[in-house]
Amino acid sequence: MGPIAIVAPIFLLIGLGMLARRLGILDDPTVKKTNALLYWLCLPALLFFKTYRLPFGVPDVGPALGALVLGSLASVVLGFVLSWGINLTPPGRAAFLQAGFRGNLAFVGLPVALFYLRSTGQDTAGAEGKIYLLLAPGIIFYNLFGVVILMSAQLRFQAKAWGRMGLELGKNPLVLSILAGLLYQKTGLGLWDFLDRTLETLSGAVLPLALIGVGASAKLLGFSSYRLPEVVAALTKVTLTPLLGFGFALWLGLGGMETRILVILMMAPTAPAAFILSQQLKADAELTAKVLVLSVLFSLGAYGIALGLLEQWPL
């Protein structure tokens, strides 16, 4: 299947979300409630369902996680150099660096990766399993590193920020559902058929709802509303960060399918959690919000180009 056929359903679903927002079918409260439904119910159901049914035991995601971490670290280092060139304040620099590496793994990276896998027509159960297992440590890393970046770029370290972050991680439904799925898998027990089918049905709602929600959440502003730092940070997120991850994936010897999936995940636009954390730690939340919107728009083209190139790359 060609790259256009792979990305077309993704773009159409995001476009449907934008259209529904413009027609007034979806508004802020509705989108917020839908995202809450995904976050607290549908995504945990998908992650538990897929992890407890992993066909080959627990796949090794160490190399993929290593490439994600190293690529993110390298992105922040290069972003720090860029931030000095565009004369940012400490709060602005902190927001710039976080927005340039922290991607929306659950709501964009996961759906796009699954769409890609299912479009190949191959047996991708093992690759799917690695995606689900990579999400938990990936989310934890993004949270930890996000706090470090926001505080160190402003030279402020607050004990309460670490405590709040630990509390949030401890009750994160995505992390907990993956851990629960792995623990349940270890028991060797199955689920009653009606529960299994219920989880499968809930899981099926994730991809379309998540992508429609991304489109509905993208509030378009006039081009004059954006400044150079926001454009540079958004481009860093959807081009530089995945390119660095790609380089480290090759260096660590990841397979072709693993490398493609890693690039897709690292190309995901800036996560909404980055905006929340910027507010909490007194970074430039407005800059983060604008990067979030721009990175969603830029990622539409970036995904199309990247998937086309990766299909031709002799991995």
Task: Provide a brief overview of the structure.
The protein is mainly α. The chain is built from 14 helices and no strands.
Descriptive account of the structure:
This protein has 315 residues and is mainly α. The protein has a single domain (3-312), classed as Na+/H+ antiporter like fold (Up-down Bundle). The protein contains 14 helices and no strands. The protein has helices at 3-22, 28-52, 62-85, 90-101, 105-119, 125-152, 159-170, 173-187, 193-204, 206-217, 228-251, 256-266, 272-280, 285-312. Helix 1 (3-22) crosses helix 5 (105-119). The radius of gyration is 19 Å and the shape is globular. The mean pLDDT is 81. Belongs to the auxin efflux carrier (TC 2.A.69) family. Pfam families: Mem_trans. It is a multi-pass membrane protein. This is Transporter. Keywords: Cell membrane, Membrane, Transmembrane, Transmembrane helix, Transport.
Spell out the blueprint of helices and strands.
Elements: H1 3-22, H2 28-52, H3 62-85, H4 90-101, H5 105-119, H6 125-152, H7 159-170, H8 173-187, H9 193-204, H10 206-217, H11 228-251, H12 256-266, H13 272-280, H14 285-312
Helix pairs in contact: 1-5, 1-10, 1-14, 2-8, 2-9, 2-10, 3-4, 3-6, 3-11, 4-6, 4-11, 4-14, 5-6, 5-10, 5-12, 6-7, 6-8, 11-12, 11-14, 13-14
Protein name: Transporter
Family: Belongs to the auxin efflux carrier (TC 2.A.69) family.
Membrane topology: Multi-pass membrane protein
